[in-house]
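Run log, item B.
One chain of 295 residues. Sequence copied directly from the ordering sheet:
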Amino acid sequence: SAQQEELREVVASTVGLEGTPEFHVGKEIDDAYSIVRDLDAFGAPIEQWDGVIHAYEEKIHGVETYLIARLSESIAKVTDAEEMFKVFELYNPLFCRPRIKNAVQTHQAHLISKVRSKIDDIKEKVTKSLRNRDKQGSTSTQTLSVLRELPSTFSVVFWNQQMRHQLEILLHKVGTVLGPDWDRDAEGRAVRSQVEELMKMLDPAKILEEWFRSNQAGFNINGPIFSVTSMRNRNSRTGKRVLQLTVNFDQAALTWVREVRNLKNLKIAIQGQNLHNAIHCTQRYPSVVTLSEMV
């Protein structure tokens, strides 16, 4: 039957069908199915049905007892939470069976508390980052921008995506611990709700919208290639003014080009006037850099 094949596949992918010399798991599953396979579903009396179902359930109960023992042995060998997560990931497909899931409830609660603690840590970082950004810019993203010489908007978006990725990993761990139907579990739904709330806080759409709006007017990148400005010669005692040759290119456009280039690496779509500005600036960027080094 489909149910028997599904159980065989799950057991094969976790502990294997061989079992021990005293208990061959694959054979026990096949024997359980053979008990009901030849039963006349329409002609058999109720008493015979009851006996067959009881015998079938005893066989499956034996299989589940063996699997619980193997799972318990694996858990007993772990030394930290990360190792236990790996054990749960291996046995995850078996958690759809109530007896097996109930046998590890205590360990599940411990691992879920670990996940919740890490989510709380991320929430604290995100809240602090948003508060600092509203004042003077996030410390985390400022550090990233300075150390890696990255544009500020990209640094914020990049940091947000890192936090989102960490949340996705933690949500995957919840599924690993609670089993295939984890989002139907009350604990699983609570964690998902908390993660979705943080995901909204980390959505880069608002940041990008403000950034696009602030640059919508474009930049002063047309006109003569060079400009000449008069400035006071600091080395002259008479205060004589000198002429200085500079490249006629809005410096803000240089930052814009770097922002766009890095955002595109994050698969952020640049559209409309912003795309036009980006193309316009990018075409001139290499020449501007070269000329700026020469003058």
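Observations after the first pass:
- Confidence is low (pLDDT under 50) at residues 141-148.
- The longest helix spans residues 46-77.
Flagged for discussion on Thursday.
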